[in-house]
Design goal:
- This protein has 2 domains: 102 residues, Urease, subunit C, domain 1; 314 residues, TIM Barrel, CATH 3.20.20.140.
- Strand 11, helix 5 and strand 12 form a beta-alpha-beta unit.
- The strands form 4 sheets. Strands 1, 2, 3, 4, 5, 16, 17, 18 and 19 form a 9-stranded mixed β-sheet that branches. It has a 5-stranded parallel β-sheet with strand order 9-10-13-14-15.
- It has 12 helices and 19 strands.
- The structure holds zinc ion.
- Zinc ion binds next to loops.
Length: 435
């Protein structure tokens, strides 16, 4: 296995070091300019920040079933280009990932592709139908070792089923990741409910439909003593509820709530719906600028534990139509770090250590991934990303590795660029390109 000497990288933005990567681990980390390694390939990382390999709790890889939108191969290439070394693949495939057989298939496809580790998310209910629990234990015991369960795309709306799922996953230290959307309050919903939805004549998706489910689920998790994870927080009220629930959980112990936010909810607002361009149609919807401010503040103060992409590829025909008919969702893997830099780092809300916590350490901890989200320290697995925060780039969807093109940032200038990604000591990306 080739060794690499990474020269002059700044771990978490601190003083520059030389990092020797050998046999899949970080063999030595010494002051910049002092390392020499015979036979190692030299990577000049002057001016680059080193972060632990990013971990996504929320990716849609679409395989099996919608290989026209994305495959494990293309989706994990996109992940590597975005600096990720591990992604959780959501269960809403066809067939649904609700058995040991399907999750093992997705896990194996990830291993074979080799661009990024794939950890399948198991469905909570059979066929995502919300009627009876899927084989949670069998998925946990499978080779895929599932710990995160979600019906994402749909809400586990039945409180009895949600309670049973929370009780069941305790046996193997799993968690239920809820897509918080009260179904009756969001029938035919198209965008954030507010003055603008009325003016545009699009059915509103009210904040309360998200917040009511989050409040209910926090109370259920406390009641049964389990682990709840809230997917893609999008409203100021949701941040308030999670902040309250975390304070209660800290005081009581024995149960836990964690939460994620998507890059697009940190940057974009519902005003974009006025274009009627369905590239901005997403679930939960883009909200107001006050919500964006609250989400940034919640991510900064730790109320929101992690950034998750909700990378949701859709083929052209599912997006190139009128708003009402278009699919919900946007790409996210290849732009996540840049959007977090723009919204959180360049604004002074987070430093690079904070970014590492929210995009690597915390999501790995929540997903119970041993080999990811580790410190950049000698002896640790060599999962890392080299990032240049000093450049700006204009997003061109045609340059992406994803099979789909539905990025809301097309033509937009964003800061930063992933220069290299290492997965267990092997570069998956080098000089900003797949290797
Ligand atoms: Zn969702």
């Amino acid at each position: 296995m080739t060794s690499y000497l990474i020269k002059g990288a700044a771990p978490l933005g601190a003083g520059p070091v030389d990092i020797l990567v050998e046999d899949g681990v970080l063999r030595s980390i010494v002051a910049a300019g002092t390392a020499s390694a015979d036979g190692a390939e030299v990577v000049d990382a002057t001016g680059l920040i080193a972060l632990p390999g990013l971990v996504d709790l929320h990716t849609h890889l679409r395989e099996p079933g919608r290989e026209d939108a994305e495959t494990v191969e293309t989706g994990t290439q996109a992940a590597a280009l975005g600096g990720f070394t591990a992604v959780h693949a959501m269960a809403n495939t066809d067939p649904v990932a609700d058995t040991a057989g399907v999750v093992e298939q997705v896990w194996r496809l990830g291993r074979e592709a080799g661009h990024c580790d794939v950890f399948p998310v198991g469905a909570v209910t059979v066929g995502l139908a919300g009627e009876r629990l899927a084989e949670l234990g069998a998925m946990a015991d499978s080779a895929a070792r599932v710990r995160v369960f979600s019906d994402d795309g749909r809400c586990v709306a039945d409180p009895v089923l949600m309670r049973r799922a929370l009780e069941y996953v305790r046996a193997f230290d799993g968690l239920v990741a809820q897509h918080a959307q009260e179904p009756r309050l969001t029938e035919e919903a198209q965008m954030n409910e507010g003055e603008l939805s009325g003016r545009l004549g699009l059915r509103g998706w009210p904040a309360v439909a998200e917040e009511a489910i989050i409040a209910r689920d926090c109370l259920l998790a406390a009641h049964v003593g389990s682990r709840l994870h809230v997917c893609h927080l999008s409203t100021a009220g949701s941040v308030e509820i999670v902040r309250w629930a975390k304070a209660r959980s800290r005081a009581e112990g024995g149960w836990e709530v964690t939460a994620e936010v998507c890059p697009h909810h940190l940057l974009l607002t519902d005003e974009l719906a006025a274009t009627y361009d369905p590239i901005y149609k997403v679930n939960p919807p883009l909200r107001t600028s006050a919500d964006v401010e609250a989400l940034r503040a919640g991510l900064a103060d730790g109320t929101i534990d992690a950034v998750a992409t909700d990378h949701a590829p859709h083929p052209h025909e599912d997006k190139d139509c009128e708003w009402q008919a278009a699919a919900f969702g946007m790409l996210g893997l290849e732009t996540a770090l840049s959007v977090v830099q723009q919204t959180m780092v360049d604004t002074g809300l987070l430093d690079w250590a904070g970014v590492a916590e929210r995009m690597s350490h915390a999501p790995a901890r929540i997903g119970r991934l041993d080999g990811h989200g580790r410190a950049l320290a000698e002896g640790e697995p060599a999962n890392l990303v080299l990032y240049d925060p000093g450049v700006r780039r204009t997003v061109d969807p045609a340059e992406g590795a994803s099979l789909s093109r539905n990025t809301p940032y097309a033509g937009m200038e964003l800061p930063g660029r992933v220069v290299a990604t290492f997965l267990r000591g092997r570069p998956t990306v080098i000089d900003g390109k797949q290797s």
